[in-house]
Design brief:
By secondary structure, this protein is α/β, with parallel strands linked by helices. The chain folds into two domains: 129 residues, Rossmann fold (3-Layer(aba) Sandwich); 146 residues, Aspartate/ornithine carbamoyltransferase (Rossmann fold, 3-Layer(aba) Sandwich), CATH 3.40.50.1370. The protein contains eleven helices and nine strands. The strands form two sheets. A five-stranded parallel beta sheet has the order 7-6-5-8-9. It is globular. The N and C termini lie close together (9 Å). The structure holds phosphoric acid mono(formamide)ester. The site of phosphoric acid mono(formamide)ester has 8 residues, from α2.
């Protein structure tokens, strides 16, 4: 059975810690590894992407491999080819398959029928590569993750779910503040609340994400529901003095985050985006060495 990375639950606390340490090594020397020499990696996108596409494409190249980027309209998946068939065929060409898709079940089916590692580049339910980069950013800022407090405010979406799952494995206390109607199912020991200031109180980081995922309409009045959860100077002020602001991008200034916070001196957002590259290289090494 190949290793997969679909939700983040595939990592133990120890393997996650090793992966983050390895990412820091790769950040200091970007050409330190040729773990993908002679290996092609398929990167299939059924949804748009800036960071994930570029960081994986560059990361595979820096590891000595060959990225094969597939956009939705360029594969037969968009015309109904079953993920099972896609997996079996691509397994014969490439050493690993990344997929950005909608329903998480598509990734599960792909992984079930793939002879090579499959990794999740975002599904409607999980965004574990993003959470890895978020944890790496916190580790850089605070030295250690154990006992850190992370507040996530806004929509109870895939990013919130991955932070709850991987945050706990890393020893981070995660609090998620959303309107009741948008609350995620709790994961592990994460605290759920409807009070953004309560979640942010004493936090080392306050994190938010877009209110509308790719292609979503405001069918249930989300904009109004989420207005009290905007990450602005007042909310960041409820956190520790040395707290940082996080956002996985793309951002919508004036909606989920204020301009002052996104571009301010407490923003760690640009490091967070950069860290996608380094942590995903460590992830790719882990996947192909299994
Ligand atoms: N954060 C993130 O996944 O960015 P992209 O949608 O640009 O890949």
């Amino acid at each position: 059975m190949p290793r997969h990375f679909l939700t983040g639950d595939e990592l133990t606390g120890e393997s996650l810690a090793r992966l983050l340490d390895r990412a820091l090594e790769l950040k200091t020397d970007r050409r330190a590894s040729d773990a993908l020499a002679g290996i092609s990696v398929a990167l299939a996108f059924e949804k748009p992407s800036t960071r994930t596409r570029v960081s994986f494409e560059v990361g595979v190249t820096e590891l000595g491999g060959t990225p094969v980027v597939l956009r939705a309209d360029e594969t037969q998946l968009s015309r109904g080819e079953p993920p099972r068939d896609f997996a079996q065929v691509l397994s014969r060409y490439v050493g690993a398959i990344g997929l950005r898709t909608g329903p998480h079940a598509v990734l599960d089916e792909l992984a079930a029928h793939s002879a090579v590692p499959v990794f999740n580049m975002l599904s409607a339910e999980h965004h574990p590569c993003q959470a890895l980069a978020d944890l790496l950013t916190l580790k850089e800022r605070f030295g250690s993750l154990e006992g850190l407090r992370l507040a996530y405010v806004g929509d109870g979406n895939n990013v919130a779910r991955s932070l709850m799952l991987l945050g706990e494995k890393a020893g981070v206390e995660v609090a998620v503040a959303t309107p009741a109607a948008l609350a995620p199912e709790p994961v592990g020991a994460a605290a759920l609340t409807t009070d953004a200031a309560e979640a942010a109180a004493g936090a080392h980081a306050v994190y938010t994400d877009v209110w509308f995922s790719m292609g979503d309409e405001d069918a249930i009045g989300k904009r109004e529901l989420l207005a009290p959860y905007r990450l602005d100077e007042e909310l960041l002020g409820a956190a520790r003095e040395d707290a940082v602001a996080l956002h996985c991008l793309p951002a919508h200034v004036g909606e989920e985050i204020s301009e002052g916070v996104l571009y301010g001196e407490r923003s760690a957002v640009w490091d967070q985006a950069e860290n996608r590259l380094h942590v995903q290289k460590a992830l790719l090494e882990w996947l192909v060495s299994g």
